[in-house]
């Protein structure tokens, strides 16, 4: 299939482009390179540097490239910034996405896969999180993603538009060959920061709170390999054949891992000691977020290849230790 990957030069998008190529599909990338990296996309992949909110340009690409479906990864995703600058998040994550969807309606492209987030659940009513739990986001980032999920339901009813929204847990790891990986500026995610500490690029890693009501006092999260995420996006396309389909899936492994366990796993994989300091809890961090990951595995021809945190961290370590400065394109 010919798939437009919006945000295809970003962390998850670029891994998805790779997986699409490996599965014999034909990805086309749209990215404005505000966060993405040109080097993360192979030169043979058609690449358009444009904004997803540039509706005329997007319509032109959809028509000229004869696109059959769209995967949308381009979003701002810093929770703290969404609280201090909500309009930035509503303009990009909602308004620009509406233009992308309008461009799809105008050109008759009606299959869409959307990156949603476990942040749409807010503080979950129970654990592990199943897809039917109430969605009550506690920050604008989660709200923008939920807004788009709701728009997708409306489009299914009104126009027979077919979509799947994946509620990601913690995307992590890198391509197994170590050639593409995570490169955020600023980096706020736990695994790359712990690896930086192991590489001596930072003095230590701050543990944001060790007095949570969890087995070792640190927060529990569900880390899922970025290639496992990517493969789910490809698997879901065959479920979008019927007009008016709307699907929602958690994408996690279902295994909770604590901050301290992540640090220990990095020490084991790297063979290096990681100095730690205990800091205050980070505002807005729920103590535990992990998926009931059964629905996607039952309904999609998709299996988790990296069920264990050590396997995930091995791939991240390979990328970061070979590219300590990331793509070096900034
Ligand atoms: N965390 C930490 N120190 C850091 C960065 C993150 O202790 O320098 C913790 C954070 O409080 C959370 C977990 O690691 O419990 C995962 O955070 P991350 O930002 O990677 O992802 P999030 O779960 O917030 O999407």
Which labels suit this protein?
single chain, about 325 residues, alpha/beta, Rossmann fold, seven-stranded parallel sheet, two-stranded parallel sheet, 10 helices, 13 strands, about 15% strand, globular, binds uridine-5'-diphosphate
What's the quick description here?
The chain has helices at residues 11-22, 55-64, 79-84, 86-107, 140-159, 190-198, 226-236, 259-270, 294-299, 309-322, and strands spanning 2-6, 26-30, 47-48, 69-72, 111-117, 162-168, 170-172, 205-208, 220-221, 223-225, 246-251, 257-258, 276-279. It is of the alpha/beta class.
Task: Record the SSE blueprint.
Elements: E1 2-6, H1 11-22, E2 26-30, E3 47-48, H2 55-64, E4 69-72, H3 79-84, H4 86-107, E5 111-117, H5 140-159, E6 162-168, E7 170-172, H6 190-198, E8 205-208, E9 220-221, E10 223-225, H7 226-236, E11 246-251, E12 257-258, H8 259-270, E13 276-279, H9 294-299, H10 309-322
Parallel strand pairs: 1-2, 1-4, 2-3, 4-5, 5-6, 6-11, 7-10, 8-13
Antiparallel strand pairs: 9-12
Helix pairs in contact: 1-7, 2-4, 4-5, 6-8, 6-10, 8-10
Bound molecules: uridine-5'-diphosphate.
């Amino acid at each position: 299939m010919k798939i437009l990957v919006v945000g295809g030069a970003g962390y998850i998008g670029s891994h998805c482009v790779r997986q699409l190529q490996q599965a014999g599909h034909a990805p086309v990338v749209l990215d404005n390179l505000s966060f993405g990296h040109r080097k993360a996309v192979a030169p043979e992949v058609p690449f358009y540097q444009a904004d997803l909110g540039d509706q005329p340009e997007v319509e032109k690409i959809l028509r000229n490239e004869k696109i059959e479906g769209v995967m949308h990864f381009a979003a701002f995703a810093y929770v703290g910034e969404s609280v201090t600058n909500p309009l930035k998040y509503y303009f990009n994550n909602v308004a620009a996405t509406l233009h992308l969807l309008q461009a799809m309606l105008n050109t008759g492209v009606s299959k869409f896969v959307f990156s949603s987030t476990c942040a749409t659940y807010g503080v979950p009513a129970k654990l592990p999180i199943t897809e039917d739990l109430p969605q009550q986001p506690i920050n604008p980032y989660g709200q923008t993603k939920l807004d788009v999920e709701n728009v997708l339901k409306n489009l299914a009813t009104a126009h027979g538009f077919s979509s799947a929204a994946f509620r990601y847990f913690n995307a992590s790891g890198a391509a197994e060959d170590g050639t593409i990986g995570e490169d955020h500026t600023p980096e706020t995610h736990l695994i790359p920061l712990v690896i930086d500490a192991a590489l001596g690029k930072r003095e230590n890693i701050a543990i944001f709170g060790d007095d949570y009501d969890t087995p070792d006092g640190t927060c529990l999260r569900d880390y899922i390999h970025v290639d496992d995420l990517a493969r789910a996006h490809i698997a879901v396309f065959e479920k979008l054949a019927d007009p008016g389909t709307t699907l929602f899936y958690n994408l996690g492994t279902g295994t909770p891992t604590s901050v301290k366990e992540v640090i220990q796993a990095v020490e084991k994989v790297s063979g290096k000691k990681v100095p730690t300091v205990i800091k205050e809890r980070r505002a807005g961090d729920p103590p535990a977020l992990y998926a009931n990951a059964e629905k996607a595995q039952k309904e999609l021809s998709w299996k988790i290849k990296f069920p264990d945190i050590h396997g995930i961290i091995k791939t991240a370590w390979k990328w970061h230790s070979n590219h300590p400065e990331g793509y070096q394109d900034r």
